[in-house]
Fold:
Amino acid sequence: MPPEQPTVASLRASTEQVLGDASEARWICEVAFAHRPLTDILHETVTERMVAHLDAMVARRRSGEPLQYVLGEWSFRRLDLAVDQRVLIPRPETEWVAGRAIDLALAVDGDRRVVDLGTGSGAIGLALADELPLDGTSVWLTDADPAALEVARANLAGIGRAARNVTISEGRWFAALPEGFRADVIVSNPPYVAVGDPALEANVLDWEPAHALFAGPDGLDDLREIIAGASGHLRPGGWLVCEIGSDQGAAVADLARSAGLLDISVEPDPAGHDRMLVARSAQ
Ligand SMILES: C[S@@+](CC[C@H](N)C(=O)[O-])C[C@H]1O[C@@H](n2cnc3c(N)ncnc32)[C@H](O)[C@@H]1O
Structure:
């Protein structure tokens, strides 16, 4: 008798057993089985190629690789983004930072220019392009890392019509923008972890790109540069929104004051941790 062919149901059960996590097993199986809802195909048999794909993903997950990289995709606000080891995995708290930038940008009348500095996968900037009105909005996505921008470009292709408003530019912070360019909203989730921070989880350290995480001995090197340069790249009354570490609120508020920014606030994330600097340039 020929060996029994595996079904989606049997493979999902064995994946769940190996990983010990029903949700992860479901996500991994859905990606392996062509993104079809598992409940619709439980009794179907699968191709050898799908089984090989599933086995490879399970092996990667068992080796400790983050689920998001194994899946090769992760959701951010309304978007499904491609992610791999070239970019930081977009975090839930960053969805909330993007939401704040979107609200500030929505209040701008007419020609609206927004910039996401250090875009990585494109998460924040593409959410802005996706959620702001198409007419009158232009969105800039920048990063110093050309490999990250390859991922952002792939994700740009996935946002449809809104992509026509987006420019991707490589360079260090403000150097990626054209001479004399000024924006209404600059948003950034820059590296803000102190080198050697013992609180950083091992799987983040082992798998995510170091240049997306670390910013000098106090984690403030990049925030210093961005905050100092913001006024010179914002339109009068324009907004700077930066994600920060939970212990950096007082320091970034001081930096913003020294840089001449106004209406400075340090805002907590939904978990109650300081997570964002919001400040505006003078009128
Ligand atoms: C914390 S990650 C954020 C990625 C993405 N914005 C997000 O929120 O998921 C920081 C990003 O800043 C980029 N970066 C680091 N140093 C930079 C610099 N000097 N100029 C521009 N981008 C930089 C990194 O390549 C990385 O993509």
